[in-house]
Amino acid sequence: MSLRKGENAAVAVPSVRVELGWRPGPGVPDVDASALLLLSSGRVRSDADFVFYNQPAHSSGAVRHEGKRTGGAQSLDLIGVDLGRVEPAVERIVLCASADGGNFGQVPGLRVRVLNAAGGAELMSYEVTDARAETAFILGELYRRQGSWKFRAVGQGYNSGLEGLATDFGISVDEPQHAPAPPPQRTPPPAPVRTPTPTIATPAPPPSPYVAPTPPPAPVPHTPPPAPPSPPAPTRVTLTKAAPAVSLSKQGGTTGVMRVNLNWEVRKQFKGWGSKRGRAVAMHNDLDLDLCALFELVDGSKGVVQALGNAFGSLQMPPFIHLDGDDRTGAVATGENLTINLDATQAFRRILIFVTIYEGARSFSGLNATVTLQPQHGAPIDFSLDECTVPSTVCALALITNNGGDLLVQREARYLVVPRGMSPQRTIDQAYGWGMQWTPGRK
């Protein structure tokens, strides 16, 4: 089964082998596979939850780095996962790749395959086709869902190497120099970025003029015009004050799912840096934002999807909205994620996407939070929460309304000041007239 970015599938076997593959050649950097075992908070418990070439086995025995197989037309790096031995506290196993001595734009044929450990049959695969200057990738993740395991193709890159990727999950990884090579120059890793894929339409060249082979010369036939360029692939849409709304139908996002991702700038306190292949060093992050959704369906039912009270929703039944989990990292590749089932568009009347500050800040000012709505079929929709000038701990991000079967996304970016004694949820409810009854809740 071949998956596209963002798609998932059930893992129906007790043990898997995750195979990272690429085509070696001149100028192709070496690639290393690794795995991070994460709690429901989206963070590791300690450096022991990082499995890579210099720490090849987790203490539980559930995850193992099985080493590389090189030579021939393909190189492989293998991670073994015994799902039955994964500790109950571990909610996700993030499967990563890092490039040594280059970037993934120089790595052809990059893909990940999930195999049945018993017999080696392929269960699913995902090929990365949009790599550019990234030096680390989250290729996929194994995660628990209602007592079973699933695999999701993630395909999100970092241009800050293994260090930048690992620190977003609460650890820091360094590597010693390889003798006899001199130590590489080190620069502070930049923040992770997403690089949109440019779209270039190339028209077909006109045919050569016709010339008769024998006299008398025949008239030169009419030369048809060049073929029109292929329609461009969906490009990224940015919602602003000047252009605050977009139709999902016009962007091609009418079926499948739409992923709503929130990430923010993590407040990091480094205990220290060692060498890249050395032991991991724990980090602190005191900021916790929560991505939430108020929904109203056409049958009149209303509710909220949020981590508070474990109201995670459902994708296949009402409300057709699901929150993946409660993240505390703010990582670009993970962060907080809501998924909306666009195949159930007719069931929606309106959806309000909003964010609350659970702890760690008194305002959105300076947090550099960004939101991306990514339809499975269609262009990504971006906007930033960078205009807060009041002591606000709740922000209405986007209002999605059903307009005759077409979902219209309206940028709100509305920062609300929570009155004393009132919850952020009740504040947002009153501002948009949802009319729900609220009781105290906790994570």
Automatic annotation (TrEMBL):
Residue ranges constituting the TerD domain according to the UniProt record: 1-169
Lineage: Bacteria, Bacillati, Actinomycetota, Actinomycetes, Kitasatosporales
Family: Belongs to the CAPAB/TerDEXZ family.
Pfam family, one: TerD
Entry-linked CDD domains: TerD_like (cd06974)
Superkingdom classification of source: Bacteria
Classification via InterPro entries: Stress/Tellurium_Resist, Tellurite_resistance_TerA, TerD
The name this protein goes by in its record: TerD domain-containing protein
Residue ranges of the region described as Disordered: 172-235
Biased composition (Pro residues): 179-195, 203-234
